[in-house]
Specification:
about 55 residues, mainly alpha, 3 helices
């Protein structure tokens, strides 16, 4: 993932229709079309980073 967004950043990046733009996903290193369940991965990785536990 290119930029590890916080859960707040992920939520704030939603389009008016509730989705995410191709450019925004590319900035986060997410393929287009995004795989099912992709939004759980950044949140999990962000939490691990915040806890300082890289082995979770």
């Amino acid at each position: 993932m290119t930029h590890l967004p916080s859960p707040e950043e992920v939520e704030a990046a939603r389009t008016p229709n509730g989705g995410y733009g191709r450019t925004q996903l590319a900035a986060w290193g997410i393929d287009w079309p995004p795989p099912k369940g992709w939004s759980k991965e950044p949140k999990k990785r962000w939490q691990v980073q915040q806890n300082g536990d890289e082995h979770a």
